Amino acid sequence: MDYKNVRTTCIYCGCGCTLNVQVADGEVVGILPCPEHPISRGSLCIKGWNAAEFATHPDRLRVPLIRREGGFEEASWEEALALVAERLGAIRDDSGPDSIGFFTSAKCTNEENYLLQKLARAVIKTNNVDHCARL
Amino acid sequence: MVASHVLTGKERGAKIIVIDPREIQMSRLADIYLRPWPGTDVAWLNGIMNVIINEGLADTAFVEERTEGFDELRQVVMEYPPEKVEQIAGIPADGLRAAARMYAQTKPAAILYAMGITQHTTGTDNVKTCANLAMLTGNVGVPGSGVNPLRGQNNVQGACDLGGLPNVYPGYQVVTIPDVKAKYEAAWGVEGMSGKLGLTVTEMIEAADKGDVRAIYVMGENPMLSDPDLNHARHCLEALDFLVVQDIFMTETAALADVVLPGASYLEKDGTFTNTDRRIQRVRKAVEAPGQAKADWEIICDLARAMGAPGFEFASPAAVMEEVVVTTPIYGGVSYDRLEAVEGLQWPVPTADHPGTPYLHKGKFSRGVGKFNPVQYQAAAELPDEEYPLILTTGRMMFHFHTGTMTRRTEKLEQEAPEPYVEIHPDDAQRIGLNGGKRVRVSSRRGAIEVAVRVTSTIRPGVVFIPFHYVEGPANALTHAALDPIAGIPEFKVCAVRVEPV
User: Fold this and answer.
1) Is the pTM of this model over 0.95?
2) What is the DSSP secondary-structure string of B29-72?
3) Which ipTM value was assigned to this complex?
């Protein structure tokens, strides 16, 4: 059995507890707290102990989807991203950069937030960038 | 987890004051518990300062050396004697005096709050008033003191730090300052960026209805459950020409999209989060993403390539951070090597040899001296009347996270809290004639939902509470989209509703 312990940061709430994620043969088999971490001090709340189960839920999205007449259809990444690029470009050209808005995410990483606001500001050229900090 | 630190303090002799319209668990362990009407925070905070000044409990040395505007503050808070506050906020005058004395005479003293202070049309005023109180008593720039907003979501702090806001680039550098724009145009190798303020989430949704915003790109957010006045929000999102949603599940928002892109969960990617104490910490990939799902950072880089835009050729999140630190002074000394330390780094960390900053405002404020910003109490935007006689206040619970996309797909958490409910005081339950009924209809001017009822004296008579996590009984179908004029935050903590048996 291939086993490793991966130290990471909990997805739930702003406390930022350290999680020791136990991985066996490429699957998460458990989550343990981290006694050395100054915030969580070897404890977790009930959400932290259970912070891996959702990731393997059968409802996870696995393939890009495009809405067609009659509902969503599966698509390749190339097709989906080409459509997004084409539509965003066309709307910007027709109605100006401020006709497009971007919601970054309080659940995504710092690097991802940086990249999406960079895309909005440097590529589309709008400051219509926000996330759910107020909600 | 923050509560566990508060309780550790209590074991060491600290005092606890809880002021909350709901009798939360911590209230039972508090030395003083006071129950105001929702939406009256400026009034009772001014009342506490009124007592502190009148009884000579202010930290006059701190006020003289480190602040300005005290006379203006005094003038305003003198209009809030405890007896008048009792009329407005429903807090007994003697209780308010006791809380004022305990807070002022116990040092250091920390103020902790979450969205109960901010989600009001007077949210900015509430925060200013908390800051006034902390400065009046010298509780700034000292370990164990301060004004401490507790962030609800894991990376709200980081999303703000990295420029996920309509008014600032990364590191809170203001978009309307030409030099700042020029700096980013040079760094990113582009011209013609916008020097105008952008729109907030709530404003973008509103602009969609008018046709001013035609396309929205959503990464890992679910406004169709988290925004106020959901019926209106749905109408607005449906008016868009093009909606892209990047997420790990088919959320209520993704269901309205034209294109849905499958992202990776936090277990399936590398990166960093910044937590509520400005602590930057690593996220490490543990397992592979399912199917063709990709990390959100990879999706954005791929999209930029599809748009023919240079500047997104990153091999890893570590490489993205190397670009971030160049233009973001508060993150200037961050590197993935340094983040190997279990305690991470607390910003500002301007240089590679700077140790980080556990607490702010030591010795001086960022603007030099601290300015008192006195404010007058203003009532909430929608108050109860004959037709809608109760105040609804919404919020979170321990078992679920935000719109429940993840926690409601977790068996143990769902077992603990499987359905939406409304908390109502026994007096109100009797007046409404619930007669032991288990479900009620709650309606406002914007919508109606049916939920289970919990009759409990932990809520103030005249006030009801509904957690907002549940799609089958969405509290935000009822809430009011009235916004704080400066922060743009909706007034989730006060709107008028009616409760009827079903």
Assistant:
1) no
2) G-SEEE-PPTT-HHHHHHHHHHHHHHTT-S-HHHHHHHEE-HHH
3) 0.97
